[in-house]
Amino acid sequence: MGSLGLDNGANVGSWGYAFAQQRRHLVTMKRLTRGLIATALLAAPSVAHADPGDIVGIEIDSVDVDGDTVGDNVYGYWEYLPTAYDTIGEPWPMFIFLSGIGENGNGTLPPGGCSGPGHAGEYLCRNLRHGPQSHIWNNLYGDGSLSDWDDEERPFIVISPQNPAPLFVLGNPYEPDDMDAFLDFLIANYNVDPRRIYLTGMSMGGYSVTLHAVNYSGRYAAVSLLPGVGVNPGDPELPGPCDMGRTAMWAFHGDNDGVQYFDPDDLARFVRDVADCPEPHPVAQLTMYEGAGHNVWARTIDPPQGMDDAVYDGYPLENGTVIDTVPFDVDLYEWLLTYDLPEVSAGPDFEVTTDDASFDITAFVTDDDPVEFTWTQTAGAPLTLTNADSQTLTVSNLEEGEYTFEVFGLDADDQWDEDEVTVTVVPGMGGGSESEGETDSAGETDSAGETDSSSSGGESTSGTTTGPGESTSGTTGAGESGASTSSSDTAAGSDSTSNGGGPGTDTGGSDSDSAASASGSDSDAEGSASDTAAGSDSNAETDSDTDGGGSSADGSGCNAGGAPPSLWMLGIFGLVATRRRRR
Prior knowledge:
Blueprint: H1 14-25, H2 35-41, E1 55-58, E2 77-80, E3 92-98, H3 132-141, E4 157-161, H4 176-189, E5 192-201, H5 204-215, E6 222-225, E7 248-254, H6 264-275, E8 284-289, H7 296-301, H8 303-306, E9 315-316, E10 322-323, H9 332-337, E11 343-345, E12 350-353, E13 358-362, E14 364-366, E15 371-379, E16 384-386, E17 392-396, E18 401-411, E19 416-426, E20 438-439, E21 445-446, E22 464-466, E23 470-472, E24 494-497, E25 504-507, E26 522-523, E27 529-530, E28 537-538, E29 543-544, H10 567-576
Parallel strand pairs: 3-4, 3-5, 5-6, 6-7, 7-8, 12-19, 26-28, 27-29
Antiparallel strand pairs: 1-2, 2-4, 9-10, 11-14, 13-17, 15-18, 16-17, 18-19, 20-21, 22-23, 22-25, 24-25
Helix pairs in contact: 2-4, 2-10, 4-5
């Protein structure tokens, strides 16, 4: 960028007013969790323009995905796709770079395309002057004087949007609301992993990184300022340092930065304030170059240069306070990739009955790091929680009512995610049913006797899951099965009630030989019978019909514990679970 253009007609006096207006503007509601993101990941990307290994410019408002004739991309941007983009099925990390005010422009391409970063006018070509997009474009279409971009060392989709604000006018960062909408657009339309998105920026772009990170907390695994400006509003109603939340931060600055509002002491204090926020939070660290000016991005974006430069071992403020600093001894791209946000799900809401002694809830997590879990009950009369610090929570002493439980997952990088599940406890049958006949172990009916529950000797297949969180393997003894015929093997995937009319039993891999079998079957036995999960009917004289949490005729039940669900079930959990993030 060279300079911020203070001698190019910039209204320096307007900065303070614009800065204050910006802060007022940034009082926004944190967005609800974007359920459509998970859906978009299941579909093929639809707007990628570059061939793998190539970089192209995408004009502002030129992509209309939803067909309403209005462009969905609020920025013109440069797009680079890794050479293996089409051959590797896994989602890719994304590296987003925000330029300074010297690269602002109208987001369009000139006739004939860009002739280089110094192309005349305020076209998208100006955004090729600095950053990774400059390195990539130069080696593909320029003189090749800059370092190569190595896909193996830097395996990113690279996106660099152009700020449409006036050129060289201070106080015009990338608007946080527009950046957030743009991020949604990218996630929905590229094969990107939302857990591994990294935001960096130089100068006014570095300040924009801070603004977006504190106003839309938790959207990035890690961010970097090259250099940037912090936010210290001193007003609890406005976003501040602790709103960085679960995003890791590495700031780079030069002690000789003489550009107004990019004071090294101010930036050092901001990093310290983030690091001093209440735990948990990931790392917030500062590298301060000795003798460096404003353009620290040049030596940081191409790490072999800056990694040889002198840096502070503790940066002293004018009042004698020393701010902790770190050396530049790890490649920036390598550092970014060490962070990936955990995704935690408590699964969909479900029902159980008061006949159950307890139920389990198992959290599902995606993360590259070890994760610690903490469960809390957030609504309903107090119940007994067991193993609240493990992945599977056991809840007992059930009473009729609606209850909400929250799981908080914290990984080894001090990054986290959380989710809630609502469990409804409905009245149970209070025991087994009676019939006119007695069912012996062979499944035959003796008209002379009566049965309170299933006869002794009944067997179920190994791996049977009884309601939410109750798993049995092998033989089910006398009285344990509420209304099932003994010695019967239920059909694959079928449900039958247990524990005196409690949640249904999920049994896999067996064939149906019994009179009361799964999924839509009719039972002619005169003994007691249960309605199965798929809504089967029984012709028995006494019907113990229960809607358990493990299964229900109306589909409201679920398998909340026991054997792990299949991968397709995990996908459904991700789609239906309502997420709520902690800053």
